[in-house]
Fold Ribulose-phosphate 3-epimerase.
Amino acid sequence: MMKRMYVAPSLLAADFSNLGREVDRIAQADFLHIDIMDGRFVPNLSMGPQVISALRGRSELLFDVHLMLEHPLPYVEVFRHAGADVISFHMECADDPGALIAAIKQSGAKAGIAVKPATPVERLLPYLGELYMVTVMTVEPGFGGQKLMPGPLEKVKKLKEQSPGLLVEVDGGVNRETLALCRDAGVDVLVAGTAIFRAENPSEEIAFLRGSSSF
Ligand SMILES: O=C(CO)[C@@H](O)[C@H](O)COP(=O)(O)O
């Protein structure tokens, strides 16, 4: 039987003039992936906690908040309060990953770490036992609509070998064409922005990416 994957539409690709309606269109997904960018760690700005608070009452999806921020510690409580269920920070800019994980858990959220395409998976190994999710970036973070880099998928295989119960998410360039590569690598959660929000029928796209077996 085909592996069933969770689907996390990335809000970055939504129509920002009507975010409430956009969230309604993807109600069948599992997570809502929300990219928070600071213009420093990545060369782009996106949205803040107000957007999350505004959408929280509108959606029952798990809010998967991806912090692309330098020095994210002071923001953990802010994003949890706004409605984040999962909070991930980037390994590359974590001053003290252990303290960040502890702060996220203390806030009541589930903890995740994201890694850029060139960051070795070995840097994550000491923390795997403390994590709910690892996000393997398959594009350079900062912008949606890029092409998936297959190289980082090797990290997914290693992570699943090391920690079979950990949720491993891939982020960047996920669509119908790259789906098989992700599935073969053992991915659990697919982040897809362009493929879902720019589709005529996002529900159909979610069902296709998810695979056939039931939740
Ligand atoms: O974090 C990012 C980009 O930095 C991603 O979440 C993208 O938003 C995914 O978009 P697509 O590649 O699916 O369009």
